[in-house]
Amino acid sequence: MDALRIEGGQRLSGTIAVDGSKNAALPALAAAILAQDTFTLRGVPPLQDIQNMTHLLGELGCAVQVDDRDITIDTTDTSRVHAPYDIVRTMRASICVLGPLLAARGEARVAMPGGCAIGDRPVDLHLRGLEALGATVSLEGGDMVLRADTLKGATVFMGGPFGSTVLGTANVLCAAVRATGETIIESAACEPEVAFLARLLRAMGADIEGEGTPRITVRGVERLSGVDIDLMPDRIVAGTLAVASAITNGNVTLERFPMDHLLAVLDRLRESGVHVEQLDSTQSPDCCTVQITTDRRLRPILFTTQPHPGFPTDLQAQVMSLLCLADGNSIVTEKIYPDRFLHVPELARMGATVIRLGATVVVQGVDELVGAPVMASDLRGGAALVLAGLAAKGETLVRRIYHMDRGYTNLEVQLASLGAHIERVDGGPN
Ligand code: EPU
Fold first, then answer.
1. Can you give the pTM of this predicted structure?
2. Any catalytic annotation for residue 116?
3. Per DSSP, which regions of 107-178 are E strands?
4. 194-238 confidence digits (pLDDT tens)
5. Where are the domains positioned within the chain?
């Protein structure tokens, strides 16, 4: 199995452009099921999760053509409605096809996703939302089966115990665009990826207002046409690369940086002594060029993950790696996935002093991290270990990097282009 070997201690410098967003691409590609015409999404990174989604769309009767980073989808066979467990278990985001299948084909049969390393991830809010639009829901042989001859607009509340749901909002949005009458999605997820989906659906002819706010209003239409659209930049990749610069005391310039989508993170990074400067003020703040530099000593900070526009859970682990080297005690609280801390014991193997108390971790800054063999257990936690390895003294070997290949395009190539000593090696059996 592939592993990443890192010789830490190199200060990163240079310029790199941020890839397109995986988490915006997945529901966007699923929305192609709604298009009665050719659908093209441009600038899609060649990630494992994207391949899983195009494979699933193929299983659902879509003709998918991948031309470098542009994906074109034509729906030829509309009879297929089954997302089987074999695919869903490799990618939970397969659930994105639930709303589009129900709206376009009157039925969706999607395997219930199983356990997940980052904690419990129920789907009750997806089902409740689609039921409110008139779907019947049953569980058959491990599959969620939803049926509706016609969907009818309604007021749908998408809030749950941990805030609103991102992909649940995406599913309801995709169903509501084809429902009769008006749907109001209350407590909608405000994440930029959901706003991107709404813009994409509007470009296909949908009537949507309020995306990016907790209330989205949708008036159903009979037909959605095709679309040709550029994918938005990935705010989590952008944040990860910013931390890579900061943790190595580097000087990295990031192009296509979605500053507007990262305000909570930038606020915390600045408090800690990381400088993020927009280099060209004429560029739009949701896709601009920034330079990342750092004070000699980092200050400890407090942060709590929250739904957007709060601090994103998908950057909790990476920023924790940075705080391992701050001058004092930081406190990190996880409010979205209270068990998303599999990176904590691995960071401890590298000399970090990290104490977990329930959904909170106290990070006592140390003077240096020390390279060690460590194991990735999830996508973002794995990225955090790579970041720690960049700063650590000596060699770090990060195993199980297939997790990172789901969400970062050749992370080692990107980091090596900035001067990191990192290579993909055969890490032996897992
Ligand atoms: N939740 C429920 N019921 C539901 C759905 C969610 O209680 O029916 C809970 C979850 O257990 C969690 C919270 O609500 O506590 C938020 O979950 P959400 O549904 O928003 O997560 P998601 O839509 O399944 C997306 C991203 C995740 C990201 C979360 C939160 C994609 C493909 N995935 O997942 O990304 O962490 O939103 O922002 O967009 C990642 O990229 O590493 C990743 C895990």
1. 0.98
2. yes
3. 107-111, 136-140, 143-147, 155-157, 159-160, 163-164
4. 999 999 999 999 999 999 999 999 999 999 999 999 999 999 999
5. 2-10+269-275+294-426, 22-221
